[in-house]
Amino acid sequence: MIFHSSRRFDFFGYGILLFLIFFIVLPVLTVFLWAFAEQWFYPAVLPTKWGFRFWSLVLARPDVWAALVTSIELSLTVTALSAVICLPAAYAFARMDFPGKSTFMLSFLMANAFPRFALIISIAVLFLSLDLVGTFTGVVIIQLLNTLLLMIWLPTAAFKAVSREMEEAARDVGASAWQVFRYVTLPQAFPTIAAALLMTFVWTFYETEGAWLVGAPRIRTMPLLMMQMINNQLVVQYGAVLSVMLWVPSLAAILMARRIIGGDTFAKGLGG
Fold this sequence. Notes:
Blueprint: H1 2-35, E1 37-39, E2 49-50, H2 53-59, H3 62-95, H4 101-111, H5 116-129, H6 136-161, H7 164-172, H8 177-206, H9 209-215, H10 222-232, H11 236-261, H12 263-269
Antiparallel strand pairs: 1-2
């Protein structure tokens, strides 16, 4: 029985491994190869000429750097505002009772059950009357709305999971409400909150629908610029170079979070 169970587990593990290779590793590897390929013709398995010519062409464009700065500014602004607005709300949802609490929590989920594109169009029509279309503020608001589910539900679950016995023990020895929150509640909830903040930053950095419908044509982010370059110039290398550039900020954010927060703590926040 143990032998058959082990074989089934092995088959499942190999299946997962093949899935990851075909649907994640190979596409990512192909993009990296195209980013440094100056010539690549069928049936060659690898590029026939390597180089940085397309990197030079892309990096020489001022609109690329402007779009990168805009994307980083948008992601930092949305993440900061989302933390200021959503974390106190999440604490209230986790620890307080008030009328309509369940309905409010469910509303964040229901808003994401509708087709996002149609919902953003409806909001864009409203923004048009408020002169928010084509503005940095308008894109921040639409992307902030997209983060509510993530930044409310995850921290709410984290605050609910905090040990009440430890908080009561701290109060019994004379700790104030702020000291209990600072030294007992926040350290236990922090891994999940950090993971939610990082996911919000990455999610906002790659968001396209809201930035396009509300921000175009004056606000142009890196994903929007990549789509425009691919549509207007059918050169695979342009899209590949921009894709690699898009990975850099999110990869840097993840590595920084792991270094500052700690690998084990960060993994707990992601459910590991």
